[in-house]
Amino acid sequence: MHTHQRSELFIDGRWVAPSGSGVIDVVDPATEVVIGHVPAGDEADVDAAVAAARRAFDPAITVPERRQRLRRVIDAMEKRLPDIANLITAEMGAPVRIAQTVQTQVPLAVANGFADVLDTFDFEERVGNSMVLREPYGVVGAITPWNYPLYQVVAKVLPAIAAGCTVVLKPSNEAPLSVFAFIEACEEAGLPPGVVNIVSGPGRVIGERLASHPDVDFVSFTGSTGVGSRVGELAGQSVKKVALELGGKSANVILDGADLATAVKVGVGNAFLNGGQTCMAWTRMLVPQTHYHEALDLIESAVNRYTVGDPWDPATRIGPSASQSQFDTVRGFIDRAQRDGARLLTGGSERIRDIGFFLAPTVFADVDPESELGQEEVFGPVLAVIPYTDDDDALRIANGTPYGLSGAVWAADDDTAIAFARQIQTGQLDINGGPYNPTAPFGGYKKSGIGRELGRFGFEEYLQTKSLQLRARP
Ligand code: NAP
């Protein structure tokens, strides 16, 4: 069997042995077989990587130099996308049709978006008698999750390079192989030593050291709200900038008068994309009581068309949960939702294949918005359908969770949908099926996070601002 062995970390422009001897197994969630290893680094590795990133950081780096670095990384990454897609399917079970599109083409679009920003960005402006300068922030600690492994890394490392920062990256243990392939692209791009470094290993060790390291200027974290809160606490103690991209429980609000069939079809597709392992997934569908039964019929027939199974089969829409622990977590949510009185419309917590972490797409109707399923992120193929009485009720439910990452509003016309969307406390909303935009600012309200990623807004997170007060001209 083909395995992917990674025994070295990339620090200071070289592949080096980690300071300890620990390794992390990478498991294919479709077969439960170990398909590779990456090193389990430790705090000494983080310290070496941060020192290299500090040496490589040049606050006076020119914009043409940044542009060149960025373009070379994007070109080298683009060549590897087919291989990276295969690694993503193998290590986290994304179906090939998702791995070859959303998992790899979206990161490419996001990367090109940063190149476009850099071409037009104004690094100096006048504010009254001041000259305001935008300078690279410094050494960035980037901590990423497993659900879209390449995208998460691109959303941090590329704007860092564009801004002239240097980076120490800690990828998720569940899906690190695709990230190591991305680091090879950085190596091929010929970045100066120390500009991009990777230290894999346990989050509690590597992540916490990065978040508390005195020589890291900015820690950018994507992951769960619980771990994000810990990262924020450590960053606060060492007074460094922090960006947190956290969980969500986004509402797909279908208002009376909307095109119900389209709203349901797109909504179901969104909820189950990547097996529901998408932070921005619309996991609560809010349906007017007057059209509730019609909506449930439409949902059931949409879900019945979903094929679950071998991620390498091009017909598969839903692969396995990405890991044993994720699988167990999702099954626990499903069992508790049934105990809480939600009505199981389709799916359930049964393992649907003897081997692999496979669950059927699961839909609950009559979900109490205050119940665990109505409030908490599941991060699996589970949709909660919630009926509402009128627009005020829909708004109260939409805003009634601790999260605010994403969502959708469907109405008879765009003006009505936009007016409703203005009242929702969330970072991004699709209006009547408006398409995904890889350069629109993305990030959370409330416990979904702090800061924005992607495009110009995401880029600006990696810049410091300096004001020079000038004398009046004689
Ligand atoms: P996670 O458990 O919070 O882990 C995220 C990253 O943090 C991993 O690299 C993890 O390393 C590391 N980590 C773990 N403990 C740490 C600690 N004490 N200090 C510092 N770092 C630590 O999240 P996940 O399960 O990988 O990802 C799923 C979550 O991410 C979901 O909640 C989802 O909503 C969220 N998410 C948010 C966005 C967004 O943009 N808002 C996007 C995608 C995902 P290990 O692998 O070693 O545990």
From TrEMBL:
Coiled coil: none annotated. SUPFAM superfamilies: ALDH-like. Belongs to the aldehyde dehydrogenase family. GO terms for molecular function: aldehyde dehydrogenase (NAD+) activity. The active site is at E245. Keywords: Oxidoreductase. It holds the Pfam family Aldedh. Its EC number is 1.2.1.3. It comes from the Bacteria. It comes from Mycolicibacterium mucogenicum DSM 44124. The keyword Secreted does not apply. InterPro entries: Ald_DH/histidinol_DH, Ald_DH_C, Ald_DH_CS_CYS, Ald_DH_CS_GLU, Ald_DH_N, Aldehyde_DH_dom. It catalyses: an aldehyde + NAD(+) + H2O = a carboxylate + NADH + 2 H(+). It is an enzyme of class 1 (oxidoreductase). Residues 15-467 form the Aldehyde dehydrogenase domain. This is aldehyde dehydrogenase (NAD(+)). PANTHER family: ALDEHYDE DEHYDROGENASE, ALDEHYDE DEHYDROGENASE-RELATED.
